[in-house]
C-alpha cells in the first residue's frame, strides 16, 4: 500500500436519480483498470453495472446501498463511494458524505439541476464537502451544459466555472476542449479509452478563449500569483491555474465544471484528472472528534498514521462471510490483529480480516492507514460507531438522523420465515438508523418504520430475497402525533388501600404546550409538600404518559409539565404511588388541554413536462396538498407542494399513469402540522375500529 | 396580535390606504428603485397584508426559484412576527399560506398567453384564483408596450390587479416627474407608482402617482437591515 497521503482521494458521486452516476462510476472503474468490461445499468447483457452489487438494485436499475471501492489513476489512489439518489435513502447519502473528503456532483445536461440535486447539495453544504461538477449526458438531445452551469449558479448558488467546453453536443458530441491546457480532447477506441489530444478546432477558438478568460478571472480571486501574472500579462501555466482553482474548490467558493457523456465514453478521463488535481487529500480536511473525558471538548484529528486510532464505522453489510463493517480511518492505523475499542459500549475488539472493497469483490490488506476507507470482518457494531485505540475516549460527531415518518405491520408467512425475518430486521436496523422495528404490545404485530413507502418496500423485498423471509404487509400507517393546545391544571390524588401497605400520593400543577421540545418537566415545589426523593418518580410517571395519548393512543409531543404542590404519606407513599399519581394527573389534565392530532407533511417536488402541469396540480390538489408554486424550466416544469403523508400512498402509480410515465417526484419530510377536524374525526373512527378488531 | 403587526407594517398605509385596495380591478401598480433597495421586500409585505385579508396573491418571479421566493415570505413574516410565540407564528402562517401561489418563469420564456394558460389551469380546477398578482423581474426597457397592454387585458378579464417591480438605473437621471426615461412609454398604463429612494442610511418611500389625498409624503421608512417598515414610535 502506498504511503503518500497527498495522493489519496476519498470521493463520493452524488446526484439526482437517473443522472447516470452508476454508469459514470462504471466507466471510472474501467479506465482505472479495476474492471475489464463495461456492463450498463439495465444493460442488455443482464450483468448490470458493477457498483450495483445487490440483485435488487440490478433489477430496478437504481443504486440503493452505497458500495465502496477503490481504484488508481495516474499514481493517485481514489476511494469511491457510490451513493444512492432517491430521497428515501438519504441517510446513506449523508453517511457517505460524512466520511468523504470531496465529491463529484453529477448533473444531467438535459434535466439540469433537479430537485434531488438540491437536496444532495444541501447535504454537501452541511458536511462542507468540496465538489467538482460533471455534466453528464451531453450526447442526449436537448443537452445544454451552459444552461446547467447557469442553474448551478442560480439554483444552488455555486460559483460554477467551466473547465471545458464541448466539441459538439447531442449526436454531434465528439469531445471537449480543455480550457487549462487549451487543447481539444477526443476519445478513441471501442470504449473511449484512448485520449487523443489535438489543436482546438478553428470554429471553437474564440469561444474557448472567452471561457478560459472567465476561468482565469474566477480563479484569480484565490491566488495573488495568478493575479500578478494576469496584470503583467505573463503566460499562465497549467500548474498556476490548477493551484488557484484548487484553492477555491477546497474553500467551496468555486465549483469547477467538467462535462461529457459517460454512456458514450466521452470525457470521463479528464474529469478523473480533475478529481486528482482539484479535490482535497485527507490531511487537507479538518475532522473533529469529541473527547468524552473532557466534557465532549472538540479535538481536531491529525491525519497521522502513528497517532492513536480514531475510525468511524459508516456502513454495515451482511455478506457471505458474516458482517462486513465499512470504516474510515481518521487517525492512526487499523492493523490486522490489533485491538480497538468501540466507544459506544466500551467493548474491546480484535481486528481480524482487513479488506478493501471493489463493489462486492474484496482484496485483503494488512492495514488501513489514516485517510483510508476499507472494511473489517467479524466486528459487532452499529453504523455510526466510533472505534479508537485502547486508552482514549473520543467519539466522532454523531450524524444527523431524521425520525421515521411511516410504519408498516409485517406478518411472517410461516415459522421459518419468522426466524429469518427477525434476523433480517436485526441486520437492517443496525445498517440503517432511519429504519426501526418493534413489536406492538397490543396487536403483537411486528412494525417496521422508515422514511417513506419505497424505503420500507425495498426492505420487505430484501427480506424475501436475501433472507428468504416471506412476509405479508399491512397498510402503511402514518406516524401521527398528539399535542395539547392550551394550559390545563391538575390536582390529583392517588389513594389505594387494598390490604397490606397502601399507596398514596397527591400532585398538583399544570400542563401547557411547548413548541421547541418534546417534553419538559419543571419542579416548582417549595417547602417539601412532595419529598425530593419522589420528584423523579413524578417525572417518570408523566414521561410514561407521553408514550400514548389517552384518547387516540398516538405518541404525545410538545408538553411542559409543571408541578407546584402535592402531598405524601409517611408510610403509604412510594415511587410506585407517585408514578401512578403522575399518570392519573396527566390523564385528568390532558383532555382539558384540548389535544389535537398532528400529521407529517412532506415536501413533494414533481418534475413534469409542461403539458401535464395542469393534471399534476389537480392530482396534488385532490390530495389535501397545498401547492407552493410552479417553476417553468422550458419544456419541463417543476411543481412544489406540501402534502400530508397520509395522502401520498400509491401516488407514484397515479402520477405515472396521468403523465404517460413522464413525470417523477421526490418526497421528504418537512414538518408536523395539525390535522383538519374532519380528518381527525376519520382517524379517531379508524383507531376505534382497529381497537375493536384487535380485541 | 400578529395580524395587528402586519397591518401596522402595511407599506401602503401611509399612502392613504389601509384596508381597501389601492388598485382597481385590472389596475397596475409599480415599485421603482435602484438594485438592492428592497422592491421585492416591499411587495412581499404588501402581499402578506393582502393574504391576511384572505385575498389571494399570485407571485410571479422572472429571476428567482420558487424556494427562494418562499424564503422571502418566510423571512419577512418571521421578522414581522418578531418575538411572538413560535406556535402562534406557525399557526398563523399555516392559515395565510394557502392564499399565496408562486409561479416562476425564465425571463425569455415569459409571455402573456403562457401566464394565462397556467392561470386557467389553476382556476378551472378551483386550485387558486388570484386577487392580486405580483410580477417581479420584468424588464421594462426590453419588453415593449404590447406585453403590458396584453397583461392589462388579462388583469381586467380575471378581475385582478397587478404590481410590478421596476429596476431603475443609477446612470439614468429621472425626468421631472421622477420617472426614468425607459419607463415613460408605458407610464400611462399605471395607476399607482411608488419609488424607493436611499437618503444616507435610510430608505424612503415616495408616491409618484396615485396616492390618496390623505397621504403623508416621504414619511415612510424602510429599515435597510430587515427591509421592514420602520417602527416610528
Which key features would you list for this structure?
A: alpha+beta, Rossmann fold, Alpha-Beta Plaits, 38 strands, B: 233 residues, nine-stranded mixed β-sheet
Quick overview:
The complex is a heterodimer of chains A (695) and B (233). Chain A is α+β, with helices and mostly antiparallel strands and 695 residues long.
Q: Number of DSSP strands of chain A?
A: 38
**Which stretches of chain B are low in confidence, meaning pLDDT under 50 for 5 or more residues running?**
none
How large is the share of residues in beta strands of chain A? 25-35%
In the predicted model, the low-confidence regions of chain A spanning at least 5 consecutive residues are 60-66
What gross morphology of chain A would you assign?
globular
Biggest interface, chains and residue tallies:
A-B, 24 and 32 residues
Q: Span between N and C termini of chain A?
A: 64 Å
**CATH first level of the largest domain in chain A:** Alpha Beta
Amino acid at each position: 500500500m502506498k504511503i503518500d497521503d497527498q495522493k489519496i482521494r476519498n470521493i463520493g458521486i452524488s446526484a439526482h436519480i437517473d443522472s447516470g452516476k452508476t454508469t459514470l462510476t462504471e466507466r471510472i472503474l474501467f479506465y482505472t483498470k479495476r474492471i475489464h468490461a463495461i456492463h450498463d445499468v439495465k444493460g442488455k447483457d443482464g450483468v448490470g453495472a458493477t457498483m450495483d452489487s445487490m440483485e435488487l438494485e440490478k433489477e430496478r436499475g437504481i443504486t440503493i446501498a452505497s458500495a465502496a471501492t477503490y481504484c488508481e489513476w495516474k499514481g493517485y489512489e481514489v476511494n469511491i463511494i457510490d451513493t444512492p439518489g432517491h430521497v428515501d435513502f438519504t441517510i446513506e447519502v449523508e453517511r457517505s458524505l460524512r466520511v468523504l473528503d470531496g465529491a463529484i456532483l453529477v448533473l444531467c445536461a438535459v434535466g439540469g439541476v433537479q430537485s434531488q440535486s438540491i437536496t444532495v447539495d444541501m447535504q454537501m453544504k452541511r458536511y462542507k464537502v468540496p465538489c467538482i461538477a460533471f455534466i453528464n449526458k451531453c450526447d442526449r438531445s436537448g443537452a445544454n451544459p451552459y444552461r446547467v452551469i447557469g442553474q448551478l449558479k442560480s439554483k444552488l448558488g455555486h460559483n460554477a466555472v467551466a473547465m471545458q467546453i464541448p466539441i459538439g453536443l447531442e449526436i454531434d458530441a465528439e469531445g471537449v476542449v480543455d480550457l487549462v491546457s487549451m487543447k481539444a480532447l477526443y476519445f478513441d477506441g471501442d470504449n473511449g479509452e484512448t485520449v487523443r489530444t489535438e489543436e482546438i478546432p478553428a470554429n471553437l477558438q474564440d469561444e474557448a478563449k472567452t471561457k478560459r478568460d472567465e476561468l482565469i478571472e474566477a480563479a484569480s480571486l484565490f491566488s495573488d500569483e495568478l493575479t500578478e501574472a494576469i496584470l503583467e500579462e505573463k503566460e499562465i501555466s497549467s500548474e498556476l491555474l490548477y493551484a488557484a482553482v484548487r484553492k477555491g474548490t477546497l474553500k467551496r467558493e468555486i465549483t469547477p465544471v467538467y462535462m461529457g457523456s459517460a454512456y458514450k465514453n466521452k470525457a470521463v478521463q479528464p474529469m478523473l484528472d480533475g478529481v486528482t488535481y482539484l479535490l482535497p487529500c485527507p490531511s487537507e480536511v479538518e475532522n473533529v472528534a469529541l473527547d468524552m473525558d473532557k466534557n465532549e471538548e472538540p479535538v481536531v484529528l491529525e491525519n497521522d498514521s502513528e497517532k492513536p486510532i480514531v475510525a468511524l464505522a459508516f456502513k454495515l453489510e451482511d455478506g457471505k462471510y458474516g458482517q462486513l463493517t465499512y470504516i474510515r480511518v481518521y487517525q492512526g492505523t487499523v492493523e490486522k490483529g490489533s485491538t480497538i475499542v468501540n466507544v459506544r459500549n466500551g467493548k474491546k475488539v480484535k481486528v481480524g480480516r482487513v479488506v478493501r472493497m471493489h463493489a462486492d469483490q474484496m482484496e485483503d490488506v494488512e492495514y488501513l492507514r489514516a485517510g483510508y476507507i476499507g472494511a473489517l470482518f467479524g466486528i459487532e457494531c452499529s453504523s455510526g460507531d466510533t472505534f479508537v485505540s485502547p486508552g482514549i475516549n473520543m467519539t466522532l460527531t454523531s450524524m444527523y438522523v431524521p425520525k421515521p415518518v411511516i410504519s408498516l405491520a409485517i406478518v411472517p408467512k410461516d415459522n421459518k420465515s419468522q426466524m429469518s425475518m427477525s434476523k433480517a430486521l436485526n441486520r437492517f436496523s443496525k445498517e440503517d438508523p432511519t429504519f426501526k422495528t418493534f413489536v406492538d404490545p397490543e396487536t403483537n404485530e411486528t412494525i417496521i418504520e422508515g422514511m417513506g413507502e419505497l424505503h420500507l418496500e425495498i426492505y420487505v423485498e430484501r427480506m424475501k430475497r436475501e433472507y428468504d423471509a416471506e412476509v405479508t404487509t399491512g397498510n402503511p400507517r402514518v406516524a401521527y402525533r398528539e399535542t395539547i393546545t392550551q394550559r390545563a391544571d391538575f390536582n390529583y390524588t392517588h389513594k389505594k388501600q387494598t390490604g397490606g401497605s397502601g399507596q398514596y400520593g397527591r400532585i398538583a400543577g399544570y400542563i401547557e404546550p411547548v413548541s421547541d421540545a418534546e417534553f419538559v418537566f419543571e419542579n416548582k415545589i417549595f417547602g417539601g409538600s412532595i419529598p425530593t426523593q419522589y420528584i423523579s418518580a413524578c417525572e417518570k410517571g408523566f414521561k410514561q404518559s407521553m408514550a400514548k395519548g389517552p384518547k387516540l393512543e398516538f405518541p404525545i409531543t410538545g408538553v411542559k409539565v409543571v408541578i407546584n404542590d402535592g402531598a405524601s404519606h409517611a408510610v403509604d407513599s412510594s415511587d410506585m404511588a407517585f408514578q401512578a399519581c403522575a399518570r392519573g394527573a396527566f390523564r385528568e389534565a390532558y383532555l382539558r388541554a384540548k389535544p389535537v392530532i398532528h400529521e407529517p407533511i412532506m415536501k413533494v417536488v414533481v418534475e413534469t413536462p409542461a403539458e401535464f402541469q395542469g393534471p399534476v396540480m389537480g392530482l396534488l390538489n385532490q390530495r389535501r396538498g397545498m401547492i407552493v408554486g410552479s417553476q417553468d424550466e422550458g419544456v419541463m416544469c417543476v411543481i412544489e407542494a406540501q402534502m400530508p403523508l397520509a395522502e401520498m400512498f400509491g401516488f407514484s402509480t397515479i402520477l405515472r399513469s396521468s403523465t404517460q410515465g413522464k413525470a417523477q417526484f421526490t418526497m421528504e419530510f418537512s414538518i408536523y402540522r395539525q390535522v383538519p377536524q374532519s380528518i381527525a374525526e376519520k382517524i379517531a373512527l379508524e383507531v376505534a375500529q382497529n381497537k375493536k378488531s384487535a380485541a | 396580535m400578529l395580524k395587528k403587526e402586519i397591518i401596522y407594517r402595511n407599506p401602503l398605509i401611509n399612502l392613504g390606504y389601509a384596508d381597501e385596495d389601492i388598485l382597481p380591478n385590472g389596475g397596475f401598480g409599480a415599485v421603482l428603485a435602484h438594485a438592492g433597495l428592497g422592491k421585492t421586500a416591499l411587495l412581499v409585505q404588501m402581499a402578506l397584508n393582502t393574504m391576511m385579508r384572505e385575498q389571494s396573491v399570485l407571485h410571479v418571479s422572472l429571476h428567482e426559484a420558487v424556494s427562494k421566493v418562499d424564503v422571502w415570505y418566510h423571512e419577512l413574516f418571521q421578522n414581522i412576527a418578531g418575538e411572538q410565540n413560535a406556535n402562534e407564528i406557525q399557526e398563523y402562517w399555516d392559515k395565510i399560506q394557502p392564499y399565496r401561489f408562486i409561479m416562476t418563469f425564465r425571463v425569455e420564456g415569459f409571455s402573456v398567453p403562457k401566464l394565462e394558460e397556467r392561470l386557467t389551469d389553476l382556476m378551472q380546477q378551483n386550485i387558486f384564483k388570484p386577487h392580486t398578482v405580483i410580477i417581479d423581474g420584468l424588464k421594462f426597457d426590453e419588453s415593449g408596450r404590447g406585453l403590458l397592454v396584453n397583461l392589462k387585458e388579462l388583469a381586467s378579464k380575471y378581475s385582478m390587479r397587478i404590481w410590478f417591480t421596476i429596476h431603475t438605473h443609477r446612470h439614468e437621471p429621472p425626468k421631472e416627474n421622477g420617472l426614468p426615461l425607459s419607463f415613460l412609454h408605458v407610464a400611462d398604463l399605471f395607476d399607482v407608482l411608488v419609488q424607493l429612494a436611499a437618503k444616507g442610511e435610510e430608505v424612503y418611500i415616495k408616491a409618484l402617482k396615485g396616492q390618496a389625498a390623505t397621504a403623508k409624503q416621504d414619511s415612510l421608512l424602510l429599515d435597510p437591515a430587515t427591509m421592514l417598515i420602520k417602527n416610528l414610535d
